[in-house]
Design a protein that fits this description.
Distance between the termini: 32 Å
Strand content: 5-15%
Order of helices and strands: EHEHEHEEHHEHEHEHEHEHEEH
Number of strands: 12
Strand order of the largest sheet: 8-7-6-9-10-11-12
CATH class of the largest domain: Alpha Beta
Radius of gyration: 22 Å
Shape: elongated
Largest sheet: 7 strands, parallel
Mean pLDDT: 95
Length: about 350
């Protein structure tokens, strides 16, 4: 049986070497940097591999396209193209550990006042007392992490927080029905999306891993955050610090103006965001210089070429064995209706 004609369109450094290291080479797999006419390559390809933003303008010119392997977890750009008669597989199962490390970094930096420690070092200033009020911290085992979006990435972040940092973890997703993965990740309770304000009222840190869909855009708004703040203030327990929001999903889940208002009003104690809408974050945004905001450039988890090669090799075996129907066995097919 002849192998499918594959065209790779990617800007990921080292991807070709990673493919070749797995034996993914030969006349059946072509790369756009070979100098061949891209239009001719598209006419004859059955499979596209690459970043969704690069591939979205090309799918209409690939009449034989049956399968698209994304090099990213998110595939939102493909939703902007009318054609949907092909199967898309996301890059999944590899970003969770990296994002778990990113969240751990920022939780520890905030709890241990890393930035202030660095400022004191720059001034050659020794703290008068290690137990002074300015340098008290909370043990992570006393804190609660809320995970908004409990897919493979969110579950891994939960696992890192609970099993690695001893934090209590609660979650929030569309279907709050308990799953086996919740228990193994250390998630003690799962709320539905109608419990979003309760999540913000109950957790010290909230990590959003939500994709960009019509249902999630602007989901974290002023009404949710103000209601959560009121609940914390009026609760039976003594008032606690405002929660910290860490966004590693998609930027449009919370608007820039909402984040700024939440910081000014004390609904959020700090805002850590790796994603924005649009990207890059505009130069004049107040978030860049805000003392309670941490901005990173969509690098909480960067695609590794070895992960793409491994995912493609696994999916290729399925595709060659059973076509696009077999691709669904891997559990990483893109859902056109859900948008992720």
């Amino acid at each position: 049986m002849p192998r499918p004609a594959v065209l790779v369109v990617s800007q990921i450094a080292g991807l070709r070497a990673a493919f070749e290291a797995r034996g993914l080479a030969g006349p059946w797999i072509r790369w756009t940097e070979t100098g061949e006419d891209p239009a001719l390559q598209l006419q004859s390809c059955d499979v596209l591999v690459g970043e969704p933003a690069l591939l979205a303008p090309l799918v209409a010119s690939a009449p034989r396209l049956a399968w698209l392997q994304s090099t990213f977890a998110g595939c939102n750009q493909l939703l902007d193209v009318p054609r949907r008669d092909y199967t898309v597989t996301r890059l999944a199962g590899c970003f969770g550990p990296d994002m778990g490390e990113y969240c751990t970094l920022h939780i520890l930096a905030l709890e241990r006042q890393y930035e202030e420690q660095r400022r004191m070092q720059s001034r050659a200033e020794w703290a008068a007392s290690r137990a002074s009020a300015g340098f008290t911290y909370r043990r992570l085992s006393s804190l609660t992490l809320g995970v908004l979006g409990l897919g493979d990435i969110g579950s891994e972040i939960a696992r890192v927080a609970h099993h690695g940092l001893r934090m209590k973890v609660i979650g929030c997703r569309r279907d709050p029905t308990p799953r086996d993965t919740d228990a193994s990740a250390g998630v003690s309770r799962v709320l539905g999306m109608d419990g979003l304000a309760e999540l913000f009222a109950s957790a010290d840190y909230i990590v959003s891993v939500l994709p960009s869909t019509p249902a999630t855009r602007g989901l974290i708004d002023g009404s949710v955050l103000s209601a959560a703040a009121a609940s914390r203030r009026d609760g039976a327990q003594p008032p606690t610090k405002p929660p910290v929001l860490i966004n590693v999903g998609r930027g449009d889940v919370i608007g820039e103006s909402t984040a700024l208002e939440a910081l000014e009003r004390g609904w959020l104690g700090h805002f850590v965001s790796d994603v924005f809408a649009p990207e890059p974050l505009r130069e004049e945004s107040p978030l860049w210089a805000h003392p309670k905001a941490t901005v990173t450039s969509h690098n909480s988890a960067v695609t590794q070429p070895e992960d793409v090669a491994a995912a493609f090799a696994d999916n290729l075996e399925r595709f060659e064995r059973g076509g696009v129907e077999a691709l669904r066995e891997g559990g990483a097919t893109f859902d056109w209706e859900a948008g992720y």
